[in-house]
Specification:
This protein is of the alpha/beta class and 450 residues long. The chain has eight helices and 16 strands. It starts with 21 loop residues before the first helix and ends with a strand.
Length: 450
């Protein structure tokens, strides 16, 4: 018997957060749709944790100081290192030195600039002791020598009833445009909110909330140094304006120190090193799930099979807006010296892969090296390549370091439905080393013996 509860266990029990009320659970048990043993097991696991934590005898364990300087530093580092620099034409970023001498004024615009959007909604919603907005983080990073001015531009849906009128939207956008026109650079902070990305429902589209695309276009039309910062937990459509702005930053939901992270990256106090954990499509129609999601009446057929994410884009030969694993830096990394040993490996044995990475740029930075495996010939349909390892390496300017990977039998295997087991077929396997799933720098091969 299952020791967890699924949607099927609660068929007919209602929707939303009211699933686990005593009345509904007892009714489901009485009707025979929910097994009593499953309920008992779930309660037993919760009680075990509560007793271990001392909640029943006054000897609560854990605790300790909250909001220390060390904890703030960890939160800031997490926010900063997660940020992904998606686009950076002609060195538009960073805005810090040596640009600071000519950079006297910056316009900060957008519905997510002066509001700290620390996380998504539902059970991911956390209320920290404090939070730093993007606007405050930018002000601190820019320093006193740069004048920072703010304009809303457009309100987030549901946050300003007055902004729902066309006249109010035009007024807010005109104010932002005039501010951007007279500034040396413009930072437009857009994205979603915890009300738009939460539990129990899906976003109706990939598009930014109403008015944000138009705001970016209007700002970019009057200021060639327009940087877009996206605060969202998932991809958004950018095709309407991506070709008109020189730089785009994906800031996700960075928690309480998100604003400091954004400021640190934009002004070059820190070097971006984040990589995309998902593929960003140009449009929803490019997604492997398009055409059969969201389905009908809460029933979805997962017809993409193994071709989810970058595997699906490879299979259909669709160019994404930004590929899986993509992320730029303020420095440059060179890959070289791929070695694969042994050249022929017996079944069950390991393969060692080594290669060199060199920071050929002018500042310290971290690169995330990705290893993909390509099965040259298989008896079953397999993806073009599969990620089998990645490593983050920090390098000073001019520094080089070797990166090593170990491939075991599981890295070469697929699940055989005919044999009901994992299978690694003899033959040639290629090792692809890249900075993203579409930026492959090195290739080599080895043979798996029968």
């Amino acid at each position: 018997m299952r020791s967890w509860m699924t949607t099927a266990d609660f068929k007919g029990a209602g929707n939303g957060a009211g699933w686990l009320t005593p009345e509904k659970v007892l009714a489901e048990v009485a009707a025979g749709r929910l097994n009593q043993a499953a309920v008992d097991d779930s309660v037993r696991r919760m009680l075990r944790v509560m007793f271990s934590a001392g909640l029943f005898d006054g000897t609560r364990t854990g605790g300790g100081e909250v909001d220390t300087a060390e904890q703030r530093a960890v939160a800031r580092r997490a926010a900063t290192e997660s940020i992904v620099l998606l686009k950076n034409e002609a060195g538009a970023l960073p805005l810090g030195a040596p640009k600071l001498g000519a950079l006297r004024s910056v316009a900060v615009i957008g519905p997510s600039a002066a509001i700290a959007r620390t996380g998504g909604g539902g059970s991911s919603l956390v209320r920290p002791k404090y939070s730093v907005t993007a606007l405050d983080g930018i002000k601190e990073a820019a320093g006193a020598q740069v004048q920072i001015a703010y304009a809303l531009g457009v309100a987030m849906q549901g946050e300003d009833a007055g902004n729902e009128t066309p006249q109010a939207r035009i007024r807010l956008r005109n104010e932002a445009v005039e501010l951007a026109r007279k500034s040396d650079a413009a930072i437009v902070v857009v994205g979603n909110s915890s009300k738009l990305e939460t539990e129990d429902f899906d976003r109706p589209s990939m598009d930014l909330p109403a008015g944000q695309d138009e705001l970016i276009e209007a700002i970019a039309a009057v200021n060639k140094n327009t940087i877009v910062v996206i605060v969202a937990g998932s991809p958004v459509t950018m095709t309407q304006w991506i070709g008109r702005v020189p730089a785009v930053v994906q800031a996700w939901y960075g928690g309480q120190e998100a604003g400091h992270g954004i400021g640190d990256i934009l002004f070059g106090i820190q070097n971006p090193s984040g990589k995309l954990p998902v593929t960003f499509p140009k449009q929803w129609a490019d997604s492997p799930a398009y055409g059969h999601y969201p389905g009908e009446k809460l029933h979805v057929a997962y017809e993409e099979g193994i071709y989810v994410g970058y595997r699906g884009y490879d299979k259909r030969e669709i160019e994404p807006l930004f590929p899986f694993g993509h992320g730029l830096s303020y420095t440059k990394f060179d890959y070289s010296g791929l070695k694969i040993t042994p050249a022929k490996v017996s079944a069950g044995k390991q393969v060692e892969v080594t290669m060199g990475v060199r920071n050929s740029g002018s500042r310290a930075g971290a690169e995330i090296v990705q290893l993909y495996v390509h099965d040259v010939k298989s008896s079953v349909d397999r993806p073009l390549k599969e990620l089998k390892g990645f490593q983050r390496v920090m390098l000073n300017p001019g520094e080089a370091r070797n990166v090593s990977f170990t491939l075991d039998q599981s890295a070469l295997s697929f699940y055989s439905t005919a044999k009901d087991e994992w299978v690694a077929e003899p033959g040639t396997f290629e090792v692809w080393i890249g900075a993203s799933s579409r930026d492959i720098r090195l290739k080599g091969a080895f043979e798996l013996a029968p």
